[in-house]
Amino acid sequence: MRSPVTTVVFDIGNVLIEWDPEYLYRRLIPDEAARRHFLTEICSPAWNLEQDRGRSWSEAVAECVARHPGHADLIRAYDEGWHEMVPGEVPGTAGLLEELVAADVPLYAITNFSNEKFAEAKARFPFLATSFRDTVVSAEERLLKPDPRIYEVLLERNGLTAEACVFIDDSLKNVEGARAVGMAAIHFTGAEPLRLELRRMGFGV
């Protein structure tokens, strides 16, 4: 049998705060086909992921503008209009986090996030700076989920055992990455299903 799970480890984007480039680019590129092309071929997920790996936004924008000079203003908007992609908290999850804090549950986070944007996110959402005993940020470690090493950084840095932790993420591949290192893991689909899963594990929420 597994040891009791005592520690909760959160992902941040689309678990605690919303993030979707569509929020910004629906306004900037109303045509759906043109918008899809821009977000898959120009400012693509792979391009954005390099900022989560540690590339600076100034370097990312300059590189992309050099390849697509005709889209320079739209490319710069990905950086300058980033907050429009993050309209607020994921409904219900921050409240659930507050309950776990109040219950003195050990809380940690592992997030694929650029250093620059994570600093901005903490300024907008102070609970990201105050709720966790430690946050492993991909850009700081030059590691991305689901690389096993990023989970191991959290465990080693904080003297945690994988068996004592449950990891929560909206990405199934990241959930599977946590399970591969021995953590329990929950695929996040909403605050209420998460509450039920945590309650089933013995947390008083």
**What is the 3D shape?**
elongated
Return the string of H and E elements: EHHHHHHHEHHEHHEHEH
- Output the CATH topology of the largest domain: Rossmann fold
Question: Count of DSSP helices?
Answer: 13
Radius of gyration: 18 Å
User: Looking across the biggest beta sheet, what order are the strands in?
Assistant: 3-2-1-4-5
**Which residues form runs of ≥5 with pLDDT under 50?**
none
| CATH 4th-level superfamily of the largest domain | HAD superfamily/HAD-like
Distance between the termini: 24 Å
Helix- and strand-based class?
A: alpha/beta
Helix % is 40-55%
Task: Give the biggest beta sheet.
Answer: 5 strands, parallel
The number of strands is 5
Mean pLDDT: 97
CATH class of the largest domain: Alpha Beta
Describe this structure in words.
The chain is 53% helix and 11% strand. Helix 4 runs antiparallel to helix 5. It has two domains: 7-18 and 88-200, Rossmann fold (3-Layer(aba) Sandwich), CATH 3.40.50.1000; 22-85, no CATH class. With 205 residues, it is of the alpha/beta class.
